[in-house]
Amino acid sequence: xxxxxxxxxxxxxxxxxxxxxxxxxxxxxxxxxxxxxxxxxxxxxxxxxxxxxxxxxxxxxxxxxxxxxxxxxxxxxxxxxxxxxxxxxxxxxxxxxxxxxxxxxxxxxxxxxxxxxxxxxxxxxxxxxxxxxxxxxxxxxxxxxxxxxxxxxxxxxxxxxxxxxxxxxxxxxxxxxxxxxxxxx
Amino acid sequence: xxxxxxxxxxxxxxxxxxxxxxxxxxxxxxxxxxxxxxxxxxxxxxxxxxxxxxxxxxxxxxxxxxxxxxxxxxxxxxxxxxxxxxxxxxxxxxxxxxxxxxxxxxxxxxxxxxxxxxxxxxxxxxxxxxxxxxxxxxxxxxxxxxxxxxxxxxxxxxxxxxxxxxxxxxxxxxxxxxxxxxxxxxxxxxxxxxxxxxxxxxxxxxxxxxxxxxxxxxxxxxxxxxxxxxxxxxxxxxxxxxxxxxxxxxxxxxxxxxxxxxxxxxxxxxxxxxxxxxxxxxxxxxxxxxxxxxxxxxxxxxxxxxxxxxxxxxxxxxxxxxxxxxxxxxxxxxxxxxxxxxxxxxxxxxxxxxxxxxxxxxxxxxxxxxxxxxxxxxxxxxxxxxxxxxxxxxxxxxxxxxxxxxxxxxxxxxxxxxxxxxxxxxxxxxx
Lengths: 185, 431
Hints:
The complex is a heterodimer. Chain A contains seven helices and no strands.
């Protein structure tokens, strides 16, 4: 069950990556079209704004969570003794789950409202609601991951408490450079 | 019973101290605040639903992922290595020359990348081994890399400046161009600091190397794609031919093309760069959503207006206010990184600053200076962490170096405060 959900989640993540790539391509084509050929892509703006940006951000929400990108102020917590830190971390994890679920409820409500209203984009006759539907999907995936992580809080393995740069400390790995580095010599 | 308006602020600080992720701490405090002001749960849900969408679905916001993507393409495309090699050949005969080359390379790389974090990890990978090889001390080498990387924040493109522009609704093109001259000033101060340091303590940079003129010229040949990219970015921004968003997308596409054409950017490299971009972008936007929820509470409650009115009523000299803000920023930035810090504080400080008659562009650049300081200064400094982790230098050694070289940032801040024209002149010549 959890495995299947993780598969779905990684599909969402790849869609987000694709959206970023398309934003780059579309905006570039639009700019070149406008200034070089005097023929801008009229719909690029709206598609980017109302669909692609939302996909890029919200469908990557669970990915960013897994990577430990949700920055926290750890200065004080790090100084707590271990037996106090664990309950505090449980509290933080539960609070985060509750808040994300609240976001899921709020964005679902908004999406239902938009579907009912039938609003369309300005230039194109496409409905606005698909953009709004993306939000609860992405946020729900993130909430699920947080929920799965709840039992891992005790061992300190919840992604919420993994920090991107702390990880680099121990493994000595650094994001993009490490991979790009191979091709640099 | 009406709960006091101060409660959301207390809840936010407590949540932050307990280690609740910054976006959630802001969001939770905002939810509480909106509920206190309106007493209506439907209103709370309405704001949450609305802010989540409107904080992201905006064309101008696209600038953020595009600048980040450009930074990642530039850093994995090997442009930084060519730059460093090219520049170091020209200054290696001076004592401390390799550290100076690092500053130059950071500055030029800053013009191809919008994320100081990317600059720090790239430069640590490239410049550190070279400086080690020539016997440079770790504090000097790591310090030059860390403080040099903050140039990336000032020199356009810059993600932090875009975030400032979005939050305060200030012209992003003008803000970006405004960072150019202060960037140069900071680079000059930084080089002077390095020179003074190695003159007083020559043991930090024992060796110098002489390079023939022919070799120097050969090294320049490899740099031209970088210069082409930089020229494109600056010219398009300055002339206003393209919007910042378009500059970001064009820059990202161009740096990817250069990387592929030079055979240094593989398909996996591209995917990895986009993955990094997705991660960083989402991180920023989730905080932005939290900040906007909290912001909705603030505007419903009228707290910023009250604070502004109170500050003006007290009749404090406006310079005292701004120096107070600088000090507070400096302290808070020890515990928090650039973008959360800005999103957290601007809603309160910006209206006050404007009311006191300061220029929004000037304050934007000043904020960047404060942010830069926080990034390299103990106990929490993202850039110091990255340099330490990437270059395998003890964090304390990095801090030793940055606490000396941070003087350059302090001097630049003071100069900008005394002569605001340094910031405002270049954008004032734009149309």
